[in-house]
Amino acid sequence: MTPVALLFDLDGTLLNTLEDLADSANLVLEAMGCPTHPVDPYRFFVGDGVEMLGRRALPQGRRSDSDVARFVELMREIYAERQTCKTRPYDGVDEMLRGLADRGCILTVFSNKPNGPVKSLVAALLGAHNFAVVRGALPGFPKKPDPAGAIAVAAETGLAPEQFLYLGDTATDMQTATAAGMYPVGAAWGFRGDKELRESGAAVVVHDPREVLGLVG
Prior knowledge:
Blueprint: E1 5-8, E2 15-16, H1 18-31, H2 42-45, H3 50-57, H4 65-82, E3 88-89, H5 93-102, E4 106-114, H6 115-125, E5 133-137, H7 148-157, E6 164-168, H8 171-180, E7 183-187, H9 194-199, E8 204-206
Parallel strand pairs: 1-4, 1-6, 4-5, 6-7, 7-8
Antiparallel strand pairs: 2-3
């Protein structure tokens, strides 16, 4: 394909947010009187929205709707204060984004993270780059892997989904891209790795952000 636009996942794709997410979630768990987790398991806890993060991080027996709602409430408060403590763009991301802009590509971001943190993180850490659309999870809108959000992002740009390369780091992203009719490219430097990406439908897996430049005309 010759894409003219790109849709990027945020966590694990453009930004390494893992430690700030883990630290914040562990503070929430402590506040709720629950055991905490090492950082690495959070690679598999995150990616499907803050409610699912709560269901995965909370212990068995503490996953009632009310417990999850409390986790979500506290997580939003604590993460808002800590979201840029350790989070940084992955090596090569700035070069990739500059190179794509130089080629005239339209750049967009779509994440299952709540919309407010998505916009604030992009502004704080990727503000040098011009994104046509920056979108996170919105109330009443289905989360990935439902393709509706990705299709809505494409519609905002006036382009068809088939004109997009979708770069993400999880099975959820590859499933979303495929369902939306976008070209699925896996980011192996992210939270899940090469195997999950290939098994979930990635047409190509890249191991450095700058490799993406070779996929566009």
